[in-house]
Amino acid sequence: MEASLDYHFGTQLQTHIKTPTSLKIAIIGFDNFGQFLAKTFVSQGHTVLAHSRSDYSDTAAKLGVSFFSDPHDLCDEHPEVVMLCTLIISTKSVLKSIPFHRLRRRTLFVDVLSVKEFPRSLFLEILPEEFDILCTHPMFGPESGKNGWVGLTFMCDKVRIGNDDPRISRCGRLLDVFAREGCKMVEMSCVFNQPL
Q1: Quick one: pLDDT at residue 21?
Q2: Which of 88, 121, 181, 182 supports an S-S bond with 150, CB 3.0-4.6 Å?
Q3: What are the residues whose beta carbons fall under 8 Å from the beta carbon of 73, sequence distance 6 or more?
Q4: Which ranges carry the Prephenate/arogenate dehydrogenase domain (predicted)?
Q5: In a 3-state reduction of DSSP, which class is residue 190?
Q6: What's the structural domain count of the chain?
Q7: What would the pLDDT profile of 144-189 be if each residue is shown by its tens digit?
Q8: What global pTM score does this model have?
């Protein structure tokens, strides 16, 4: 384990313990739902980065999240996971605006729109082939999940996950965030919208 000390809010000292299961997760679209997910990611020891068109830097700082107003700067941090928390109508333009060349090959892209054909097709169309794709649909949000996620359904489809151990492990570690919170985990195909 590697321990790092970070100063937050001037004089307050926080200790973050990095474990082999920790991920560096970038959230693009940091409104209510992105902030809602970030709280849990941070509480489980993950490093969280965020980007949004609006300035959420103060909110991010209070949550222990690093906010980037420029997506190039966010991508320069080389997150292992990039999670899109955008409105469905803006997903295509947001996805096309990401500077993929600044990310490491094999980055895992995750959407939280729904386990449907549209996000799957969009990700397959726009993302470079070397990036992994996980489509998800948390069947809860800031209101229904405010008292915890126990028993709430989390659906997912591993659309394109590389077959080497580090990529499989990274996907598993991300899904474990939701499982550890007590979610009912359901794998479902985007294409047929049926359980796998």
Answers
A1: 81
A2: 182
A3: none
A4: 23-196
A5: coil
A6: 1
A7: 999 999 999 999 999 999 999 999 999 999 999 999 999 999 998 8
A8: 0.87
Kindly report the average pLDDT of the chain as a whole number. 88
Q: At residue 4, what is the residue type?
A: S
pLDDT digits (tens, 9 = 90+) for 8-41: 333 333 334 444 589 999 999 999 999 999 999 9
The CATH number of the domain where 58 resides is what? 3.40.50.720
The full 3-state SS of the chain, as one line of letters, equals CEEEEEEECCCEEEEEEECCCCCEEEEECCCHHHHHHHHHHHHCCCEEEEECCCCCHHHHHHHCCEECCCHHHHHHCCCCEEEECCCHHHHHHHHHHCCHHHCCCCCEEEECCCCCHHHHHHHHHHCCCCCEEEEEEECCCCCCCCCCCCCCEEEEEEEECCCCHHHHHHHHHHHHHHHHCCCEEEEECCCCCCEC
Q: Which domain holds residue 41?
A: 24-187
Domain-located, residue 3: no
pLDDT value for 29: 96
Residue 4 belongs to some domain of the structure: no
Q: Is residue 1 part of a domain?
A: no
Query: The tokens of 107 are what?
Result: 């980055």
Residue 29 bridge partners (DSSP): none
Which run of H or of E encompasses 52?
Answer: none
